Amino acid sequence: MFFQHIMGIVFVGLALREAVITSRRLNLDPVRFESDSSLLIKINASNALVAEIHTITADILNFAAGFSSASFVWFPREENRDADALAKCFLNIVEPLVVVDAVNAPN
C-alpha cells in the first residue's frame, strides 16, 4: 500500500510538473493548477521537503516562479472521476513494471 501511495504522488507530481511547463511554453498567464492531491498542494504551498518527490516539487516551484500569478488549488477527487479513473488505470499498468529488488552482477 505504501508503494502505491508513493507512486501515486510521484505520478500526480509529474503530471502537475508537465502542466506547469506546458503552461509556460504556451505563455499562459495567470494560471491556476488544480489537483485532488492535498499532499501535493500542501507541499507546493509550504516548500516542504519530501524526499520521494523533492526534485519534482522543486521543478514545479521553479517553473511556476516565472508566472506573474500562479495558484495551486486542491479540489475533491469526486468532482473529477474521469481523471481519477484514468490515473488508477495507469497505475495498474505501470506498477508491475517497476523494479523493486535488483541484483548486482559480480565483476
TrEMBL record:
<dbReference type="InterPro" id="IPR036397">
    <property type="entry name" value="RNaseH_sf"/>
</dbReference>
<dbReference type="InterPro" id="IPR002156">
    <property type="entry name" value="RNaseH_domain"/>
</dbReference>
<dbReference type="GO" id="GO:0003676">
    <property type="term" value="F:nucleic acid binding"/>
</dbReference>
<feature type="domain" description="RNase H type-1">
    <location>
        <begin position="14"/>
        <end position="88"/>
    </location>
</feature>
<dbReference type="GO" id="GO:0004523">
    <property type="term" value="F:RNA-DNA hybrid ribonuclease activity"/>
</dbReference>
<dbReference type="InterPro" id="IPR012337">
    <property type="entry name" value="RNaseH-like_sf"/>
</dbReference>
<keyword id="KW-0732">Signal</keyword>
<dbReference type="Pfam" id="PF13456">
    <property type="entry name" value="RVT_3"/>
</dbReference>
<protein>
    <recommendedName>
        <fullName>RNase H type-1 domain-containing protein</fullName>
    </recommendedName>
</protein>
<feature type="signal peptide">
    <location>
        <begin position="1"/>
        <end position="19"/>
    </location>
</feature>
